[in-house]
Design a protein that fits this description.
The chain is mainly α. It folds into two domains: 152 residues, no CATH class; 270 residues, no CATH class. 85% of the residues lie in helices and 0% in strands. 45% of the residues are buried.
Length: 435
């Protein structure tokens, strides 16, 4: 519903000294989130049997009823993590979302595996880990925003402001999510189950790039809002450029192999039968490259009070994506779906960057990119050389090319020297990994 991002956008722009205003925002967001979480969870719980009938799987009803509790906790965890970032401190949200929750989930699953884990056990493991992260954040929020916790005051005007900002963000998020799923759905509708399985396997690699961008967005989003509120356009531009560049740098280990040896990657990961998805995977990787080159552009728009622009762009991208899949998938299959995604991402990136330039006169790419380009070219050369040596099976070749390619990229980039802003961003990323 956009409450997480809206609260971050409004909260990061509040002056640091105004603790009462921040506290009121936090407690109001918590009230709204709790109500939404309860409503969503009850809807899933009550409609579980109906959904099970739609899928013609009666046993799904019990699963969905259990998952309704996990949904409630997941909503609280997400919004709570964003609320802790209002103060520009990332540790609490990172610990809760990216350490406690996944690690807790893994540990419970391992314990249950010793006793013969089943589906319901896995659901309880997920629920327990979400509860762990949510409780941790509750304690942190109580300590950070003591005024809010003591007053527990719900402010109607703050709630109206939250909804005003959140509405376009929520709708845009729906469109953006659907764009990532539409190609798979159309392949499943128009083509065979085998092709759908191959395309699904290939498209999963895009999750890595989305994760890299999401990680950077959580770091820079409050900075965008704070610098925009202070009028520091130079710092805003600098953060946009640096975060985009590091999104590319962190993606190089997977980006280059997927571009040059996609068939080998699929074969090493899933088996030789999946190598038919090589062309589609290469095209999907180019689409993600377009996404990476535009960086956290949607957060630039949202955090600088232009969420409606992002909504319009997301809606247009979704429409183009639907049209492209209807046009290309029946005739071209996997390649057609990948091309539809590529066209959509290119359109989204170009329009977004034009709007940002028009609104803020900033751009994510500058002359400093030549170092990264030269380093990436070196990595590509190493990968092509290793491929010609024919050193063994697909798994060995992929491991060697990815490892040596990344090493070559890192060495060349290090020898060329990083910009001061690059070192600052690297320190932020490393601190994120150390938390």
């Amino acid at each position: 519903m956009g409450i997480d991002i809206a609260a971050l956008q409004i909260g990061a722009a509040i002056p640091t000294k105004d603790k009462n205003q921040t506290s009121t925002l936090v407690i109001t967001a918590i009230w709204i989130t709790t109500i939404l979480a309860l409503f969503s969870s009850l809807a899933v719980f009550i409609g579980a049997d109906w959904l099970a009938a739609v899928y013609q799987k009666p046993e799904l009803g019990q699963v969905l009823r259990l998952m309704s509790l996990a949904l409630f906790l997941a909503i609280l965890l997400r919004v709570g993590a964003y609320l802790t970032r209002i103060s520009l401190r990332m540790e609490s949200g990172i610990i809760a979302e990216e350490i406690l929750q996944p690690l807790g989930n893994l540990l419970v699953v391992l314990v249950l595996a010793l006793t013969g884990i089943e589906l319901l056990g896995a659901i309880w493991a997920t629920t327990a880990s979400l509860a762990l992260g949510a409780v941790y954040l509750a304690v942190k929020i109580k300590n950070t925003y003591a005024e809010a916790w003591s007053s527990r005051s719900f402010d109607r005007q703050v709630a109206r402001n939250l909804w005003k900002v959140a509405r376009p963000i929520a709708v845009a998020a729906v469109f953006s999510t659907l764009v990532l799923l539409t190609d798979r759905l159309f392949v499943g509708f128009y083509r065979s189950e085998v092709e759908a399985g191959i395309f699904q396997a290939a498209s999963l690699f895009s999750v890595f790039f989305v994760t890299v961008l999401s990680a950077l967005k959580t770091i820079v989003a409050p900075i965008f809002s704070a610098t925009f509120a202070s009028g520091d356009r130079n710092r805003l531009r600098e953060t946009f450029v640096t975060s985009t560049r590091w999104g590319l740098y962190l993606s190089i280990p997977l980006l280059v192999p997927l571009l040059f040896i996609p068939g080998k990657v699929l074969e090493a990961t899933y088996g030789s039968l999946y190598a038919d998805g090589a062309a589609a995977l290469c095209i999907l990787t180019v689409a993600q490259l377009a996404n990476l080159l535009s960086g956290p552009v949607e957060y630039v728009l949202v955090m600088t009070e232009n969420p409606r622009d992002w909504l319009k762009i997301s809606a247009l991208t979704f429409i183009v994506n639907i049209a492209g899949n209807v046009w290309l998938v029946p005739e071209l299959g996997l390649v057609g779906a990948a091309l539809a995604t590529l066209i959509s991402f290119l359109l989204m990136s170009l329009i977004s960057l034009l709007v940002v330039w028009r609104r803020l006169a900033i751009f994510p790419i500058d002359g400093s990119y030549w170092k990264g380009f030269l380093a990436a070219t070196s990595a590509a050369g190493i990968i092509l050389l290793v491929g010609r040596l024919n050193l063994g099976g697909a798994l060995i070749e992929v491991a060697l090319t990815a490892g040596l390619g990344f090493a070559g990229f890192a060495v060349v980039l290090w020898r060329l020297g990083m910009e001061a802003v690059d070192r600052e961003m690297l320190a932020m990323v490393l601190s994120r990994l150390k938390v």
